[in-house]
Amino acid sequence: MRLVLLGPPNSGKGTQAAQLAEHLGIPAISTGDMLREAVAEGSELGRRVDSIMQSGRLVDDETMAAVVRERLAKVDAAKGFLLDGYPRTLPQVETLEGLLADADRELDAAVQIVVPKEILIERALARGRKDDSAEVMEERLKVYGELTAPLVGYYGGRSLLRTVDGDRSIDQVFASILEAIGR
Ligand code: ADP
């Protein structure tokens, strides 16, 4: 299975991605985690993206294309994958389409997790990651609305979109996702 998880910051994508990956036997690929690891390692990439991430803005599409191309080329992604946090812009959608087409593969579904904004902000303040302050969270939500939300229309138009209500328990959301993807 090749899946994309869509949802605003703090919608629970990461939690669901980990559980789904385990259940489906495919790797969960979180670009946010990959970038945070790069920052922690102090690599060239990490030094370049650190302040961008802390401000709540997006890392540029070319940088992300290189990160994702390299990750999807690893052997474990041959049997399928679940992308968490990519694509986040329409150009990133095109990059992914290109990578899949090159490998003669297609996406099976894009799962959108919907959560009301007040809940997202509440969760961010409870989580307390570096980029979870009220101010940065506002910026991340704005970026999501402007750059990422259009992907919902795109995947909807290709009949790949599955929408689930994320304002419920982790187990309930997980069950709905499995149902939505027919597992
Ligand atoms: P969350 O899961 O809370 O939405 P992530 O952990 O996915 O957040 O991402 C954290 C930050 O990493 C983003 O705000 C952005 O700066 C950067 N980032 C992650 N994935 C991408 C991407 N596909 N394109 C651009 N920037 C990204």
Outline the structure in words.
The structure is a single chain. By secondary structure, this protein is α/β, with parallel strands linked by helices. Helices cover 57% and strands 13% of the residues. The chain has nine helices and five strands, in the order βαβαααβαβαααβα. The protein has helices at residues 13-24, 31-41, 44-55, 61-72, 90-102, 117-127, 134-148, 150-157, 170-180, and strands at 2-6, 28-30, 81-84, 109-114, 161-165. The chain has a five-stranded parallel β-sheet, sandwiched between helices. α1 (13-24) crosses α9 (170-180), α4 runs parallel beside α5 and α6 (117-127) crosses α7 (134-148). The protein is globular. The model has no long low-confidence stretch (mean pLDDT 97). It binds adenosine-5'-diphosphate (ADP). Adenosine-5'-diphosphate is lined by residues 9-10, 13-14, 31-32, 35, 52-53, 56-59, 64, 85-86, 88, 92, 140.
